[in-house]
Amino acid sequence: MAVHLLISVLIISLASFTYASDPAPLQDFCVAVKDAEAKVFVNGKICKDPNMVSANDFFFPGLNVPGNTSNPLGSKVTPVNVNQLPGLNTLGISLVRIDYAPYGLNPPHTHPRATEVLVVVEGTLYVGFVTSNPADPNVKNKLFTKTLYPGDVFVFPEGLIHFQFNVGKTNAVVFAGLSSQNPGVITIANAVFGSDPPINIDVLTKAFQVDANLKITPCGILIVYVLDIYVEIEPCSLLLMIGMADFCVALKDAEAKVFVNGKICKDPNMVSANDFFFPGLNVPGNTSNPLGSKVTPVNVNQLPGLNTLGISLVRIDYAPYGLNPPHTHPRATEVLVVVKGDVFVFPEGLIHFQFNVGKTNAVVFAGLSSQNPGVITIANAVFGSDPPINVDVLTKAFQVDANVIKYLQGQFWWNID
Ligand SMILES: *[C@@H]1O[C@H](CO)[C@@H](O)[C@H](O)[C@H]1NC(C)=O
Ligand SMILES: *[C@@H]1O[C@H](CO)[C@@H](O)[C@H](O)[C@H]1NC(C)=O
């Protein structure tokens, strides 16, 4: 009884640690000091002197370069988290590029600290995730799978075991946002069968209910995972048990009878893979508007599976000299990858913009650290509110003639979203 209690307490504390989201920032940014330069260790990283911070601290180049997939799994993850991009420290988000050779696999793994929202840029991927153990021991862990094509978006909820398998004859490429500056990865096969020192054989024999002499190569077990996922990973998903729900797929506002912070959850028994899926992000947005740019959002309003998971995605298209005008996201940090390669961070709540200075169209994908980041376009909010802000207030705030304010208030302010 006492032992049982102890184990329960252990699992509960483990679970609450596992599910802790990144802490909210307490200042505009806290650019990470390199570990080698830090003299004390903290949760996250120590901040660089803000006076020494420059734009390069929020910048990472080269995500246009394919990862080398010449390895037994045929896949390669190129991470852009706080270890590569120090400006992400305290901001609760990061990005990866993943390359897959034909039949390449990103094997079953979890991110202990992050939800992942992925967009396919190239290729055909069979993806899936498995829920944590149900309360009823007679009910199995549920597998959700989907085949994805370019432009498709899929969500892997925080902490759940998931995989991607390139089922096409060509290479595949994805970009994915993750809701932590340092999501962590636990590859199930490596953690269970490849730990140092190895886990006691009796423990694994009993856990997997196989003969102690059965030789299971890491690749062998991976194939088994893809074909029959929950039987094999059950012992590992013990760690993910207990705690909050795996997901809370949003009910459409029109179907909800009460209003809450976020959205009401759909009946979990009615949830399917399509609730975590959004197609069509390969289609360019229509930039024929006064600003020459178009944001295509994939947040909880388009993809109900994102509810409670603290992340979303956008595609932004820019015509030549197109502008995404100065704006803020009141609830999110944004980490943006220009499809041609560079990454940049816009810290939570700060005013930012993007301007296409090239002669050709531009495309970016960006992860945002909220299911519903919100947008406040500065010009629209200040000069285009309904009803208008009192002219005297704006005249004094901007220290210009009242006629200038009236002129600005008379403009039609194009709403980027
Ligand atoms: C890719 O990795 C393999 C195996 O490590 C190596 O032999 C090969 O040279 C690498 N290719 C490139 C282009 O770096
Ligand atoms: C793009 O938007 C413009 C202006 O609203 C419209 O005239 C045009 O037909 C649209 N183009 C496409 C391809 O939808």
Q: Into which percentage range does the β-strand content fall? A: 15-25%
Bound molecules: 2-acetamido-2-deoxy-beta-D-glucopyranose
Strand order within the widest beta sheet = 1-17-16-19-14-13
Q: Rounded to an integer, what's the Rg over CA atoms?
A: 23 Å
* Sequence stretches where pLDDT stays below 50 over 5 or more residues: 1-19, 215-243
Compressed to H and E, one letter per element, the order equals HEEEEEEEEEEEHHHHEEEEEEEEEHHH
How many individual β-strands?
Answer: 20
Global shape: globular
Task: Name the CATH homologous superfamily of the largest domain.
Answer: Jelly Rolls
Number of domains: 2
What is the SS-derived class?
alpha+beta
From the N-terminal CA to the C-terminal CA, the straight-line distance is: 58 Å
Q: If you average the pLDDT, what whole number results?
A: 84
In CATH, the topology of the largest domain is named Jelly Rolls
Query: Helical proportion?
Result: 10-25%
How would you classify the quaternary structure? single chain
CATH class descriptor name of the largest domain: Mainly Beta
